Amino acid sequence: MSNPDFGTFDLVMRDDDFVIYRDHQPMTTPGGRELAHYDSRLLKHILIELSLSSTVDSSTIGSFTLFSYCKDIIEQNNNHFLDHFDLILPDDPLLKAKLDPMGKDRGKELKQILDDPFGNDKIMNLLFLGATVVAKGLKDLFSLNENIRIMGKEFPKHRKEVLLFVREIYGRLPAEKKAAVNLLFEAHRVGVMLPLLLVLSKISASEYALAVLASRTDESENSVSVLTNSSTVGFELSPVQVDWENPGVSYALFHEQALKTVEYLSFFENSGKKMSVISELISQGEHERLEFKSTFRWDLRQDKKNPAIEHAALKSITAFLNSDGGDLLIGVEDDGSIIGVERDCFANDDKFLLHVWTLIKTSIGKDISPYITTTLEKFDDKTVCRIQCRRSPKPVFLRQNGYDVLFYIRIGPSSGSLDISEALKYIADHF
Questions:
Q1: Residues with pLDDT less than 50, the chain
Q2: Where are the alpha helices (DSSP H) in 144-246?
Q3: pTM of this prediction?
Q4: Is 187 in contact with 225 (CB distance < 8 Å)?
């Protein structure tokens, strides 16, 4: 994919992950870390955003900024957001209205700010509608703590428990959601509770945007930025300003950035939809550097162990080693459907891998171990084993008990043996 303004983008698959390339070089975050991940769908989402943009921008909320902030700040243990919670929470607009019975009447403030009589009623109705839904989201969140009563006049009495509970909720968030809360806090200046409710799916993007608009009626209270320089390096977020002459434009911007955040986080919610390296390989279908095997040792037709099944797998491994390398996926049918290594009837994954490696070492040789890597990946309740083979620097022969010693190479999408003269010529030409 290309953008004539700033280069060509591509998604490249590596051994264990994917990386976005820009002009034939791995693209990096503002902190200098590669835009790499094991889920290709997530990176494709970022790549599309970058390709449609006119610049690589980390000053506004989008998938590139969310991903980069998580890589550069959260994953580097440079997140100082919790250090400021004692300042953030008491001044949070949502909590302040609940904890402070003497809090200001937001409705009166709105009437002073919105002087168009027709627009006033319309916007007031929308904002109060949003506030009702947000109140329900807040109730749902605090219902997780049976010691806190949010209804009636009881809530202010639980001030200490409330602050500790919110701190705990934030602390338990996965890295990508912490990044989202931090950036929404910084860009929208609405405290931490609204971003928390959004990333926890307690409110929708539109409800969030309405609540942000309502909270921003008193700009003096919500303009503080508490993210320290060490936790925002490379991320100079521009706070969204509210245009009260045309509040619909501001709402649209809040809504757009909330939608981008929710869409980005959705890639982390459903593991079954992630496109890992193995799932990407399966989607390619078999070819000269990729082969599928339903099982490693179990004959599905005869419903028993069969050395011939093991021999077929070892042939493929040997052929990959003698050719240009490749991947053997165990637990995958020829058509790409996953049946899992569970069909090999081992007690657990460790015993399965132990058997695989024992056969490799005894039949192919211990010295080729550095050129083979095995990984397991779960797809719901089924496991796929990837046996990744790199080109061996020396010829490899298959010596399995009960079978002739033979030299195998890849011939198109399958493995084939060479007779002595053919093998000697191949070895002379390739090693």
A1: 101-120, 151, 220-224, 226, 228-231
A2: 159-171, 175-188, 193-199, 205-215, 229-232
A3: 0.72
A4: no
